[in-house]
Write a structure and sequence with these properties.
Blueprint (H helix, E strand, L loop, with lengths): L1 E4 L4 H11 L6 E3 L16 H16 L3 E10 L20 H11 L7 E11 L5 E12 L15 E3 L11 H7 L1 H7 L2 H8 L4
Parallel strand pairs: 1-2, 1-3
Antiparallel strand pairs: 3-4, 4-5, 5-6
Helix pairs in contact: 1-5
Bound molecules: inosinic acid.
């Protein structure tokens, strides 16, 4: 069964393939093998955007599609940047500017609690869709550390860790990440899809 990964973000693509690449009977396709139109993220929640990306890409391509939307929710900022995480400092995916803005807003702030939240969506060309969620709790460091990962990884210290996510190896990040938790919850559905049971 061919399933399309509905993202152009190379870091997410890699993580999704590492986490779900082993499901028997699923052949993962990306925009490289099967180009699809870009979907504008007009939703106001991670749930809306994940569903929007999965459903519209499945309908445009005729292929079952897995999509994901994720964000960082900082307690002292009332849950921001949340759904706006990738354009927090104004420019889409300017990770360094986003991290600098976050550090500035939290300067002098003692409550550094934050969480990553990922919402994964699986959609079929007939319009049916399913959503799952994964959360990783942690706190925001006072300066960036580490070279792995992407986005806010250099500033995020998972609960129970002293290192940031960017200091963990990719395998260590995968074991605990919000994305891993959301994607694993889709695994039974993907296995059913591969067996022709959906
Ligand atoms: P999306 O492409 O709109 O889902 O953007 C999600 C944004 O949230 C990314 O651009 C990052 O800024 C942030 N983000 C989501 N997941 C992660 C992660 O695993 N590490 C670091 N930043 C993340």
């Amino acid at each position: 069964m061919k399933v399309l990964i509905g993202t152009r973000n190379p870091h997410k693509l890699e993580e999704i393939r590492r986490i779900l690449g082993d499901i028997p009977g699923i052949e993962w396709l990306t925009f490289r093998e099967h180009p699809f139109p870009e979907v504008e993220e007009t939703g106001t929640t991670l749930e809306e955007n994940a569903r929007l990306k999965a459903v519209s890409t499945a309908q445009a391509t005729g292929l079952p599609t897995l999509a994901e939307d994720s964000g960082l929710e900082v307690a002292a900022l009332g849950g921001a940047p949340g759904v706006l995480s990738s354009r927090f400092a104004g420019v889409e995916k300017d990770y360094r500017a986003n991290n600098e803005k976050l550090l500035e807003l939290l300067s002098g702030e003692e409550n550094r609690r934050a969480r990553f939240r990922a919402v994964a969506a699986l959609a079929l060309p007939d319009g049916r869709s399913w959503l799952t969620e994964g959360i990783l709790e942690g706190e925001i460091a006072t300066s960036p550390r580490g070279a792995h990962g992407f986005g806010y990884d250099p500033l995020f210290i998972p609960v129970g860790e002293t290192r940031t996510l960017a200091e963990l190896s990719p395998e260590e990040k995968d074991r605990i990440s919000h994305r891993r938790r959301a994607l694993e919850r889709l695994r039974p559905l993907l296995s059913s899809l591969a067996r022709g049971e959906l």
